[in-house]
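Narrative of activities, Objective 1.

The group set out to show that a structural description can be obtained from nothing but a protein's sequence at a throughput compatible with the screening campaign. Below is one input-output pair from the validation batch, recorded exactly as produced.
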Amino acid sequence: MPIDAAKALAAEPRSGEITWDRKDVQLYHLGIGAGSPATDPDELRYTLESRLHVLPSFATVAGNGSPGVISGLSMPGVDVDLARVLHGGQSLTLHRPIPAEGTATATGRIAAVYDKGKAAVLVMRTEVADADGPLWTNDAQIFVRGEGGWGGDRGPSARLDPPTGDPDRTVERPIREDQALLYRLSGDWNPLHADPDFAKTAGFERPILHGLCTYGMTLKAVVDTLLGGDVTRVRSYATRFAGVVYPGETLRIRMWQGDSQVRVAVSAVERDDAPVLADTIVEHS
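Output recorded for this entry:
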């Protein structure tokens, strides 16, 4: 069996130093669509080094290393074909605001392995701390088609009851044709997002946008629309990737405001509001 759950869970955590600077943060922000209009003061806080604020979802690419999905596939006990892998979900917990420049230690391990019958789900946990203490914790849920069925723990259900009533705010965000090509410069080089032949092998008509790019675009929309542009108010952010997005499409982002959280649903406008992100919650102060 390509996934040895016991071996993966027992493997020693891997630690390494990561560094990032303002250029990395600016490139990430541009990759998720920041900077339009280019002279808008609200956009300049994402693009101009003298005013730079760090959107918390930058944590998924900080250090320009492999994202959780890719690093999880290189862990002991895991030997699977990249073409059968999908990013199932992502959660992020912020312990304090992310600085615009930094050096930290990232420690990664397989925190869980679930048997979903026709697929396996790996949870790759990455904990990041600098000299002043913990910064953030990332969990990437890795969905591997065709690797379930060994009788293991099915794990918890990620499905939530949908939000009720009309959304408090709805915004639309266009995706450029070249957006995946720009976003991948932040460290996710999976050919699924650039190579038409690889995309077809993986079962898609053409390259798809990174799920984490949609993840970042959605958090930016929530911060800008409901949190007054204050990135430091975000405490945690979790989502389930419910469908693909193709460059050139438009995201419709619906938001329901609670006391200390925002529920979000994201769909693709051009495909009759096909679901893209579901079970999405932004916890905030």
